[in-house]
Amino acid sequence: MTLYAGKREALEDAFLDRDDEMPRGKPRSVTRDALRRLRANKAAMTAIVVFAIIVIAALIGPYLVPYDYETPDWEAFTAPPSIESGHYFGTDQNGRDLLARTLYGTRVSLLVAVIATTVSVVVGVLYGAVSGFAGGRIDSAMMRFVDVMYALPYILFVILLMVMFGRDVFLLFAAIGLLEWLTMARIVRGQTLSLKEREFVEAARAAGVSSFPIILRHIVPNLLGPVVIYASLTVPEIVITESFLSYLGFGVQEPLTSLGTLISEGTDALGAADWLLLFPGGVLVTMLLSLAFIGDGLRDAFDPKDR
Amino acid sequence: MLSFVLKRLASTIPVLLIAITACFFILRLAPGGPFDQERALPPEVLANLRAYYHLDDPLIVQYLRYLGRLAELDLGPSFVTKDFTVARQIGIGLPYTLILGGSAFLLAIFGGVVAGIYGALYHNRAGDWAIAAVAMTGLVVPNFLVAPILQLVFGVRLAWLPVGGWGDGSLRFLLLPVTVLALPHIARISRLMRGSLIETMNSNFIKTATAKGIGRRRVVLKHALRPALTPVVSYLGPAAGYLLTGSIVVEQIFGIPGIGRYFVNAALNRDYGMVLGTVIFYMGLIVLLNLLVDLAYAWLDPKVRQR
């Protein structure tokens, strides 16, 4: 890119009106435009700030809270939230500080979401790109498989995998990621079908590059927009799945905790200690809402024709 | 129409076969057997049990035997609750699940369509915004969080409705679980309905009808509604599947003795026979419901039949 910067400037000076909005010499890429549109979207920017606060709190919060997530405070069992005692979110029936547990649970939920989303992005992008690039009979066979998987409710498979993996939570969520790639594969395939007809792919092929490097070097980098959008929609889905499983008693086990486990415990204490449900539930809802707005904002930014 | 029905019917067979095969082998890959208990069984008892359930045969033989039994609609024995076959337990739970899911299905369609029509006719006004806000919450907040909050408000604080249980199956007991189950689908359907009705109301044939002097109510109900309903109808197939899997957690929260509870208990007890049987039953039911919805769709919209 830098090699051609000077040439580009010369060409622009010769043939184009001066563009004052962008710094000269810097390429005006699709991503750059999209980020500018995203910055103009107030709801999405607020959501990003809120989400960032939650992430930072989950990462460094546990070190700042004087209590840890598994040690009981023998002075305070089922204590309501109060500022004097230092249990800002109260404690549970075992005297464990709810703030520490919520922070820790958020961290586990986010970690699981990141693992599963990464797996689903990698599998979905590769599957979709290969299917779209190969075309013909391979393509239709691969997409037929996706159709079949679509027809089946994935939560049932998740519970089956759960029976299989038992207590290894992180392996389990890698497996959820392995089931969550279907939509990603479809989107990526559609994009690939149009990308592979473009001149730069033809040029690469003419230069003797074989199929798989073309997919990795030329197709996949151009899929960034849709992949980012869809990945941002996958994260909340995985957070919900994790909470759902933990709620049913399949997911994260004691003394480790996650938002779903905390909500499940809070439900049992409902009426006697409402704060046990309200705080973790509030964090989950805030997180899901902000992710929903971020996803919407990204979609508007990367795909302006949809508005 | 007949050839469409047959073609559609034939396309369900590979779906079911792949699903059954995948479930069977996933469960058999799992480490540990159904008879692993805290206290190990005497080896000769274990050997007898394994021989009784043919667990020592090669996997492929077991698989073919299972398929053969399925063809006779026999779901096999349960490994934990030995007095009841899988089919018997499903038979006991099915009426509850069907009543719960069916009521939620009707409520979702009715509530979603009415809210959608309102939102479309008064779009961008206060009422529309209010519906959109409620719908967003309904979509984002998971049902295991909505349910306890409703239980707390209507069951404990106001004491208007029972907190859980089936009771005599009257409306009082059904109201909360059905609402919780239907809520996200009311939201989804209302958004689909709103979007498509706004589009339809802007089309030329509606302008013609209005220009002829037909009253607004008649234009909406007689002319615009039917074409606007197509995206809603195509969502009903997936919705039926989501309702069925969603009822797993709703049954758990409200203590309703449907299939979902048997399924969760079986998964927690690692009762492979029961887990496999219920998953296959769920999948069969979902494939069947999708088939029915597709047929209804083809009946509504002749264009679909041509494909």
TrEMBL record, chain A:
Residues 106-295 form the ABC transmembrane type-1 domain. It comes from the Bacteria. It is a multi-pass membrane protein. The chain crosses the membrane at residues 43-65, 108-130, 142-163, 169-188, 227-250, 275-298. It is found in: Cell inner membrane; Cell membrane. GO terms for biological process: peptide transport; protein transport; transmembrane transport. One of its GO terms (cellular component) is plasma membrane. InterPro entries: BP-dependent_transpt_permease, MetI-like, MetI-like_sf, OppC_N. Keywords: Cell inner membrane, Cell membrane, Membrane, Peptide transport, Protein transport, Transmembrane, Transmembrane helix, Transport. Belongs to the binding-protein-dependent transport system permease family. OppBC subfamily. This is Oligopeptide transport system permease protein OppC. It comes from Jiella endophytica.
UniProtKB/TrEMBL annotation, chain B:
Residues 94-293 form the ABC transmembrane type-1 domain. The keyword Transport applies. PROSITE patterns: ABC_TM1, PROKAR_LIPOPROTEIN. The keyword Disulfide bond does not apply. One of its GO terms (biological process) is transmembrane transport. InterPro entries: BPD_transp_1_N, MetI-like, MetI-like_sf. It comes from the Bacteria. Its main location: membrane. Gene3D superfamilies: MetI-like. It holds the Pfam family BPD_transp_1. Coiled coil: none annotated. It is a multi-pass membrane protein. Keywords: Cell membrane, Membrane, Transmembrane, Transmembrane helix, Transport. It is found in: Cell membrane. The chain crosses the membrane at residues 12-30, 98-122, 129-150, 170-187, 232-254, 274-300. GO terms for cellular component: plasma membrane. CDD domains: TM_PBP2. Belongs to the binding-protein-dependent transport system permease family. This is ABC transporter permease subunit.
